[in-house]
Batch of 2 targets.
Target 1
Amino acid sequence: MDKKGPAKGVEMSDLTVWNNAAIGIKEDTVVWLGSTEEASILEATQTIDAKGRLVTPGLVEPHTHLVFGGSREREMALKQQGVPYLEILKQGGGILSTVRATRATSYGDLLEKALFHLDRMATYGITTVEAKSGYGLDRETELKQLRVAKEANEKHPLDIVSTFLGAHAIPPEYKENPEAFLNEMVEILDEIKQEELAEFVDIFTETGVFSVPESRRYLMKAKEKGFGLKIHADEIDPLGGTELAVELGAVSGDHLAVASDEGIEKLANSDTIGVILPGTSFYLGKEDYGRAREMIDAGAAIAISTDFNPGSSVTENLQLIMSIAALKLKLSPEEIWHAVTVNAAYAIGRGDVAGTIAVGRKADIVLWDAPNYLYIPYHYGVNHTNTVIKNGKVIYERPAIR
């Protein structure tokens, strides 16, 4: 897993596997790779015996909504009863309920909650996380979310990559004038840049949210200000968001469940990575999990993610998503491992530092209670993590019960 650039198409089936391998770490960096027999030449102050376990790069989580207030467990029963989402919105639920909760939650409480979720992600073998704002829909709360993510990055061992998703939904007061709302979000980009609160700018391009032309104008303004681009697109209706992501050189197009044939072809012939979110389809009870198989077969690079958020994919367990990707997206184990390591790293601008085990790279490594890489997506719904090493330090070990 040390090739330059993401794995595309058939390359995602070519997984580098070493048997009886040993890794030498000095401080926070991998400085040596070889066999266990060759490792005898090393003078180690500490040795971890993997005891035949699977050892991989730390998992990379390329799409989360980490910072938010409240929760929405009461909506599950309504969804099970078949209550339409618009009706849930009328009853005070849906994304706007999370917006109200996030606006009302103090900075300190949001930080404590984000650190809690990061702790849980670490136990599942995740070592790098993308975190979006988007539950403020106003200047004050969006900045609050981004500042929380920045402080969480400083306080927590996991690396956080921040994305500004102020254009996540249209607040009620702007329902008849979404362009005015987008202009308001553009107005805070300079402040975000000055405080180094986000690397990427994202927008939700979908029916009832923002159109392709609106999204193009907004993202071009963000690009002019030096931000990398991401886009939530083609989740429900194939509006052409995949094509827009490629057109603008976005680092990733996310969701893409109903991407068009033309969009898939353009994706395959670009550097844009498709970030696929099968947990969302699973949680919402959808029959169609998306077109990841067609994307890979066309030659595209894809990553997969939990889409951790309080409304449509309430899990920090990327291992579970790996199983769903196997069962519902029909991805091979080799493709899945690329999608949660090297490709996921490139999807958040961290391809040069995360997602692989290589000499000179930071030592982000996971030891699994599994005999081989095939086992993790096969044995679903549990946590297989034994030990997580971040920047050369053990940050999690499976607790002993007996």
Target 2
Amino acid sequence: MTVGPDTLAALLKRKDVLPAGWESVFGMVAREDFVPARIWPDDTDALLDRDRDPEGWRRAVYSDRALVTQWDDGRHTGAAAGRLATSSASMPSTLAEMLYDLDAAAGMRVLEIGTGTGYGAGLLAARGCRVTSIEVDPQLARRARENLAAAGFGELVEVVAGDGTHGHPAGGPYERVQVTAGVRRVPAAWLAQAAPGAVIVLPWGTDYASGDCALRLVVGPDRRTASGPFTLATAFMKLRAQRPDRARYGDPEPPEGWLEWIPPSSTMLGWDDVVAGPFDSVGFVLGLCVPDCVARPVLHGAHGGTLWLYGADTGRGRSIAAAEFRAWAPPAVRQSGPRRLWDEVEAAWRWWDDRGRPTIHDFGLTVSLGDDGTVRQQPWHLCAERPLIPPAHDWARIGGG
């Protein structure tokens, strides 16, 4: 069977992820016009080359799979997967669900952060939007312009090579902002360049883990605040300007002999309680509740594992914790530094468990722009009036929050 845009649109319709009015758009825009000849489907990391296997390549293009299109910021060569995937064609179902959140209509000015192949910008242009798309990699920006021109959208999309965290004020104010790279800190420029009431849809996450959740923010009348819920567990490559800054957390290796000279304590929690899969709620919620912390689980085969926690050095010194789980012994927890990181994680887990283990859909984020230009991000539970208070402050004050 020959596959094509209509096949993909029908697949997304069966999955019930197509927003109203978008089936014809997905059927109109051919994904193959944007995907390069060499791709690595992210569920295999095995190269598919259109010149060597045109049918296999085409089946992958019109499947519901994310396709890695660049490794290591373009320095990668060869057929094997590179060290770090740095650009991709997003999974169509994820893109469709985020377009549902975006709710873009014909005539709207849309700012897209992360052009990639240009496919997302092409969909928005086919919808009738006026699109400004920013791509940090100049070579990818050039190819996206070529792809869009060849597909007939060259005059409808302006592709700008630059740092997406700065936005593009010349094309604003924007009624919609779509972000296709993982974000840890919402840039002030996105609020400043948005129209009052604008919708910003982005994958957002914390340093705690690598996963993201789609976040739908609505910009306030003064364009200094935006707030909204998390809607979808997902994972995106991070903005280059916001890739994990491991220097904030120090050497990932603890001091020599650390496990021996720190006296252990115990815990009633187990490995499966605090180490979850990439799309499970618990890891994301722990990240919301335990700021400035990186979690690194290390498996020890079938015999257990250790969850290492590293706190950012904010001027008071470095904090570190290790919760060791063994099949033959009770858990052993060791902590040092000004923060008791395991105590924070355990308190957050118990708060989450006491409330019936709410999912990501029960949480949201409020973003506020200060007078000094800095952005404050406040996570909340159930509504913006119920902010989450990190356990390091005072969990007892949360009460029934």
